[in-house]
């Protein structure tokens, strides 16, 4: 069976070849009706875009680098899934690297991605570096001193929510290997009773669930009955990807910082606030 060409798609969609090329690239000059007609024709014929050739002709690779501090972290998969969900919508691909400051320095990982001609980088690693930016860089968290955009927790809002939950009780913070709310350590205090915060670690089985704030996936809230502060890493990945798309394409909202405010759950039900 012969390979389906762009000319075949043009004939099927009843437009010229240049229109097909622009529609498949997402050119804003092409109307949504025409773009949809071209995509439907391409799907019917089984046409596949040659991304290598497209990159050579446009000098764009549609590649985004994603740097993780620890790919073994329990939340790494959810974060990358959030990134992939958004990038795939814009027909962009990701190259994932790990930078832990020991086996791979920030500068080395950054340069390897630039050498691969990525159009932008999402940095989710607590590994600082001072390399001058050659491509747009979106950091998630506080891992880099240089960035084009930063995605961070709304620390004030989250802290106020935890304090409201604690009431007059003492607060103690317990951290696992991959904590995401390290700033909650600053809320430790003495009071009447005790609220224990477990960030990235499960509490002892003998603990009273009424006195626990579990920083984890909301599913565990339903399974354990604990109050849960959602990690929100899937959303963080999606927001980071949306930011890098806007930067690479020079469109959309591009503030210097984007704040995330994770939700709380009790027995699997979200608490309104």
From TrEMBL:
<dbReference type="InterPro" id="IPR010982">
    <property type="entry name" value="Lambda_DNA-bd_dom_sf"/>
</dbReference>
<dbReference type="InterPro" id="IPR028082">
    <property type="entry name" value="Peripla_BP_I"/>
</dbReference>
<dbReference type="InterPro" id="IPR000843">
    <property type="entry name" value="HTH_LacI"/>
</dbReference>
<keyword id="KW-0804">Transcription</keyword>
<protein>
    <submittedName>
        <fullName>LacI family transcriptional regulator</fullName>
    </submittedName>
</protein>
<dbReference type="GO" id="GO:0003700">
    <property type="term" value="F:DNA-binding transcription factor activity"/>
</dbReference>
<keyword id="KW-0805">Transcription regulation</keyword>
<dbReference type="GO" id="GO:0000976">
    <property type="term" value="F:transcription cis-regulatory region binding"/>
</dbReference>
<dbReference type="Pfam" id="PF00356">
    <property type="entry name" value="LacI"/>
</dbReference>
<keyword id="KW-0238">DNA-binding</keyword>
<feature type="domain" description="HTH lacI-type">
    <location>
        <begin position="4"/>
        <end position="58"/>
    </location>
</feature>
């Amino acid at each position: 069976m012969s390979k389906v060409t762009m000319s075949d798609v043009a004939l099927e969609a009843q437009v010229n070849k240049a229109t097909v090329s622009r529609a498949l690239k997402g050119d804003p000059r092409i109307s949504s009706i025409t773009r949809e007609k071209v995509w439907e024709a391409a799907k019917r014929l089984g046409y596949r875009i040659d991304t290598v050739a497209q990159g050579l002709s446009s000098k764009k690779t549609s590649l985004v680098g994603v740097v993780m501090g620890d790919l073994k972290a329990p939340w790494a998969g959810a974060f990358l899934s959030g990134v992939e969900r958004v990038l795939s919508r814009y027909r962009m691909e990701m190259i994932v690297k790990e930078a832990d400051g020991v086996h791979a320095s920030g500068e080395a990982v950054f340069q390897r991605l630039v050498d691969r001609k990525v159009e932008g980088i999402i940095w989710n690693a607590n590994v600082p570096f001072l390399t001058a930016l050659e491509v747009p860089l979106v950091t998630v968290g506080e891992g880099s001193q240089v960035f084009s955009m930063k995605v961070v927790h709304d620390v004030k809002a989250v802290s106020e929510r935890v304090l409201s939950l604690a009431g007059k009780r003492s607060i103690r913070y317990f951290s696992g290997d991959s904590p995401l709310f390290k700033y909650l350590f600053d809320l430790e205090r003495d009071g009447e009773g005790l609220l224990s915060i477990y960030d990235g670690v499960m509490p002892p089985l003998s603990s009273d669930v009424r006195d626990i704030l579990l920083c984890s996936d909301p599913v565990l809230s339903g399974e354990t009955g604990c109050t849960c502060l959602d990690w929100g890493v899937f959303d963080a990945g999606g927001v980071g990807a949306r930011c890098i798309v806007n930067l690479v394409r020079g469109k959309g909202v591009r503030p210097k910082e984007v704040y995330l405010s994770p939700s709380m759950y009790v027995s699997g039900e979200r608490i309104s606030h």
